[in-house]
Design the sequence.
């Protein structure tokens, strides 16, 4: 039946995790069973939050599928705590699948740390002795020691895809060496399967809005709503592209506009009104906080 059980976290973008495993396994003719260890809130810019499934629920998921449909291959991915590790190792010992592959996720593609040293140590001593092989990114290989180590590209999505492909060929009766060789043949390293979001275009739209909306609002949520995204995502975008928060960009644009108007004959009160500050004092405090001087002193120097 070419049945493969994948035990790992979710990836909302489908670039890795349970979604990518199911896609790869199914496209190669395998039958994918799945158990989720961690739910992630993420997009192409990175992971925002984790929700680790309770270990008891993970074990019950594995029992439910393995009691009914015995997998030939078990592929293990994201493990974020010792309780999940213990639940998985108990199940591996209980069902003794023919092949066990482990693709450790030390850090995400955006460098979020997913495994600390203590957990790596426990994985090394409790899980890896039960594995037929580990498929690991080159940069993470030094963290683990196993009888059979398959090194993959440093791209996490590609490493995950290689492991899933090997799992399918093992389920078809190939040896480990044969499965690895064929998997590498059909997955040339130059192929890039990572998604890219609308990061750059959204940043440009946000910056363009400063010309027309700067005087209407100094609030990040206002711009996020106008662009139909969450304030959190807008913050991810601006930090990724410009290494600045949205608030910093808004404030800098506003400061530039104030300086331009201070070079005219408008009074400071008129400028405050034009840019929708609540009062002249509000504008003065804002200006002094960013420049270290008052609008009046700035005007005199000009």
Sequence:
């Amino acid at each position: 039946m070419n049945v493969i059980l994948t035990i790992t976290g979710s990836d909302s973008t489908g670039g890795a995790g349970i979604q990518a495993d199911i896609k790869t396994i199914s496209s190669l003719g395998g039958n994918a069973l799945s158990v989720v260890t961690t739910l992630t809130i993420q997009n192409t810019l990175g992971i925002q939050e984790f929700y680790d499934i309770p270990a008891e629920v993970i074990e019950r998921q594995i029992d439910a599928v393995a009691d009914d449909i015995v997998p030939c291959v078990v592929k293990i991915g994201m493990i974020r705590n010792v309780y999940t590790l213990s639940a998985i190792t108990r199940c591996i010992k209980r069902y003794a699948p023919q092949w066990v592959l482990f693709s450790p996720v030390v850090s995400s593609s955006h460098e979020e740390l997913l495994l600390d040293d203590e957990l790596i140590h426990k994985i090394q001593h409790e899980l890896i002795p039960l594995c037929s092989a580990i498929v690991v990114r080159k940069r993470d290989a030094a963290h683990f020691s196993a009888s059979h180590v398959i090194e993959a590209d440093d791209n996490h999505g590609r490493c995950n895809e290689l492991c899933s492909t090997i799992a399918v060929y093992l389920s078809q009766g190939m040896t480990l060496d044969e499965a690895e060789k064929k998997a590498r043949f059909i997955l040339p390293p130059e192929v890039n399967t990572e998604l890219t979001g609308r990061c750059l275009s959204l940043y440009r739209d946000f910056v363009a809005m400063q010309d027309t909306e700067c005087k209407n609002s100094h609030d990040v949520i206002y711009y996020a709503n106008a662009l139909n995204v969450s304030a959190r995502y807008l913050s991810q975008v601006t930090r990724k592209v410009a290494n600045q928060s949205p608030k910093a960009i808004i404030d800098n644009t506003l400061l530039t506009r104030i300086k331009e108007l201070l070079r005219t004959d408008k009074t400071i009160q008129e400028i405050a009104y034009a840019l929708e500050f609540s009062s002249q004092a509000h504008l003065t405090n804002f200006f002094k906080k960013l420049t270290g001087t008052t609008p009046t002193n700035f005007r005199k120097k000009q």
Notes: The radius of gyration is 27 Å. DSSP finds 13 helices and eight strands in the chain. Residues 255 and 290 are 8 Å apart (CA to CA).
